[in-house]
């Protein structure tokens, strides 16, 4: 499993020194992304199956890429899934995570291993696998590097298709996708606003299937954790929210999240103050040493 995301805080001690503090980000982005994809493609749920984790190798290497398997002969009329084949591998990067040429070839290696480990290799042909790399921000440098060797076509806002490799590949920049068409995946961000939040909640209210509602619960919970201040203001100000929010985020759960966020903020502030104090002590010791005073 990949290491937890990190949030970095910087504190300036003097004109020449900056102390960087790491705080673990415990938001579970990958499960929420899998839920969001199931909701994006829920119209085709009877033709698709999902594997949220996959073991590669005889000594299991558990990789949290998403595999979506599609029934033969089914056409997906969705601009994310319209190029789906039988086996479709998704590599998802959390907001702020890097996506570079190494990420690209790592995803290709997953696809190659996935193919080679089929019970009957001939059952999973090269042309029956697609690879999708997903990130909120457009990976500009990566796309420029790929365009030097392969054909890169912008299929739609936020959707870039690359041809000329072993497998059909697309790169999805969710921050560029139409937030009205792709409510679920575009909600997985740290910068959602009230309008998009209300659209998300309205979409939740339209769901009738229990499995869909569980997936929506996953998306909304991660979105609220990543945007706790906005959700806190909306609740405290009595913002007009649909009843589904009250069901998805029970008052005691939301109150716990708010208290936890406040506690984390205080801990981070205390850590910065402690770092400032340690740096100041070190600075004073150096001044005394330079003045010939033994400590």
How much is the average pLDDT? 79
Major beta-sheet overview: 7 strands, mixed
Number of domain modules: 1
- Helical proportion, percent range: 40-55%
Helix run count: 9
- Structural class, please? alpha+beta
Number of strands: 11
Our estimate of the beta-strand percent is: 15-25%
Order of secondary-structure elements: EEHEEEEEHEHEEEHHHHHH
The strands making up the biggest β-sheet line up spatially as 3-6-7-8-11-10-9
Terminal-residue CA separation: 48 Å
Query: What Rg do the Cα atoms give?
Result: 23 Å
Shape: globular
Low-pLDDT segments, ≥5 res: 1-24
Structure description:
- This protein is α+β, with helices and mostly antiparallel strands and 295 residues long.
- The protein has one domain.
- The chain is built from 9 helices and 11 strands.
- The strands form 3 sheets. Strands 3-6-7-8-11-10-9 form a 7-stranded mixed sheet, sandwiched between helices. The chain has a two-stranded antiparallel sheet with strand order 1-2. A two-stranded antiparallel sheet has the order 4-5.
- A hairpin with a 5-residue loop joins strand 10 (159-163) and strand 11.
- The protein is globular and about 80 Å long.
- The N and C termini lie far apart (48 Å).
- Mean pLDDT is 79; it is low at 1-24.
